[in-house]
């Protein structure tokens, strides 16, 4: 393992801690995540299917924008 691997593990761990703090302190304000129009929710007698399509698309756009800004700033 190189020192770069250790740095990336620290960054990933910090992001997980940050996500945990956001959910812990702002969890009551984030109830709309996963319940957006376009999220697929099918519920029958013995069957439940849920696919947060719109939520996944928004998260994908957000992560893409963050990565593009990160790359732009690191030049």
TrEMBL record:
<feature type="transmembrane region" description="Helical">
    <location>
        <begin position="7"/>
        <end position="27"/>
    </location>
</feature>
<protein>
    <submittedName>
        <fullName>DUF2905 domain-containing protein</fullName>
    </submittedName>
</protein>
<keyword id="KW-1133">Transmembrane helix</keyword>
<feature type="transmembrane region" description="Helical">
    <location>
        <begin position="47"/>
        <end position="70"/>
    </location>
</feature>
<dbReference type="Pfam" id="PF11146">
    <property type="entry name" value="DUF2905"/>
</dbReference>
<keyword id="KW-0472">Membrane</keyword>
<dbReference type="InterPro" id="IPR021320">
    <property type="entry name" value="DUF2905"/>
</dbReference>
<keyword id="KW-0812">Transmembrane</keyword>
């Amino acid at each position: 393992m190189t020192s770069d691997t250790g740095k990336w593990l620290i960054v990933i761990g910090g992001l997980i801690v940050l996500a945990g703090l956001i959910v812990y302190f702002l969890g009551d304000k984030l109830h709309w995540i996963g319940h957006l129009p376009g999220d697929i929710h099918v519920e029958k007698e013995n069957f439940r299917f849920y696919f947060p399509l719109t939520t996944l698309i928004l998260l994908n756009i957000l992560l893409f924008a963050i990565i593009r800004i990160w790359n732009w700033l690191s030049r």
